[in-house]
Specification:
globular; alpha/beta; disordered N terminus; 37% helix; 340 residues; D-Maltodextrin-Binding Protein, domain 2; single chain; 11 helices; eleven-stranded mixed β-sheet
Length: 340
């Protein structure tokens, strides 16, 4: 997920597509009335939350945690529908074809909401005009991790840079998909450090991390919350965090900026509705999402996964999204990346 500052590296790189889909249900709510709360009759049926990545990644974790509480609060089952592929385009197209009545929502990150429009000139939907930000859910920095069995000699970012310079074009890095924030962050690292590393796109951070742990790829940037259990288990090693300051969840791990000044990459996850959804329904979803974020269950999970909430009022979210599009658009343009 990414943070309030988005990314500010200088360059990135480019191109390809993937496709996948999986669906899983969040725990159904106890049978309680749907309530009105300014949206009489909503929800009248189960709610679907589309996630643009495979199960197991940072965005999926946040969506399921919030969806679980929404199910309990709204009295309807909430289904998480994982539609990975093409950096979020698959999910975005499914979402754009849905009815604008609040029963289909989207949890998206900068990859879908801020990067794709600059990366893909033939995008089949317009996230700026068709998607409405409802609530900011969480943020956290991205962290550069390696498989310690595959790269036992790499303990710091300078170690990795030195190895990559000694073995140009021989080190791969995984990502959640071409054009995703994790891809562009890796590409910016390569450009900033002057190293030649090869991008390997996956259909979400979950499958990428699975192959990283299995030794199929040696390294990747991942959201801290997704990586943290594996870091604690020792199956992955953090070598640098792409934040302004060292993170308390990663004692002894330096920032990328300590080696490459100015390098930042933080991730956010936000809940979106469709343009045309009645305002009272959007208000209800916003209120219930904020309530969900305050529950002990969600607070506990966020603490365990090193997520921070972002208390941005809904009225300010369009300006925030515009700022993120500018930041990431600059990164895409600097990279020369395009996906047709």
């Amino acid at each position: 997920m990414v943070g309030g500052n988005g990314v500010v590296g200088r360059r990135g790189v480019a191109a390809a597509l993937g496709l996948a889909a999986s669906t899983a249900a969040v725990r159904p709510a106890a049978a309680q009335g749907s309530g009105s709360g300014g949206a009489s009759g909503f929800p009248s049926r189960p709610i679907r939350i589309i996630v643009p990545f495979a199960a197991g990644g940072t965005t999926d974790i946040v969506a399921r945690a919030v969806g679980d509480r929404l199910a309990a609060q709204l009295g309807q089952p909430v289904v998480v529908d994982n539609r990975g592929g093409a950096g979020g385009v698959v999910a975005g197209e499914v979402f754009a074809r849905s009815e604008p009545d609040g029963h289909t929502l989207l949890v998206a990150t900068a990859s879908l909401a801020a990067i794709n429009k600059a990366l893909r000139p033939n995008l089949p939907f317009d996230p700026d005009t068709e998607f409405v930000p409802i609530a900011m859910l969480a943020q956290q920095p991205n962290v550069l991790v390696v498989n310690p069995r595959v790269l036992p000699q790499v303990r710091t970012l300078p170690d990795l840079i030195a190895l990559a310079k000694a073995r140009p074009g021989q080190l791969n890095y995984a990502s959640a998909g071409t054009g995703t924030q994790l891809h562009l962050t890796g590409a910016m690292l390569a450009a900033e450090a002057g190293i030649d590393i090869v991008h390997v796109p996956y259909r979400g951070a979950g499958p990428a991390v699975a192959d990283l742990i299995a030794g199929q790829v040696p390294m990747m940037f991942d959201g801290l919350g997704s990586a943290l259990p594996h870091l604690r288990a020792g199956t992955l090693r953090a070598i640098a965090v792409a934040a302004e300051a060292p993170h308390p969840a990663l004692p002894g791990v330096q920032t990328v900026a300590a080696t490459l000044p100015g390098f930042l990459s933080t991730n956010w996850a936000a809940l979106f509705g469709l343009r045309g959804t009645p305002a009272p329904v959007l208000d209800r979803i916003d209120a219930e999402a904020r309530k969900a974020l305050e529950t002990p269950e969600v607070r506990r999970l966020f603490a365990e996964r090193a997520f921070d909430t972002m208390p941005i009022p809904r009225a300010e979210l369009p300006a925030f999204m515009a700022s993120e599009r500018r930041r990431w658009g600059e990164a895409v343009r600097a990279s020369g990346a395009r996906v047709e």
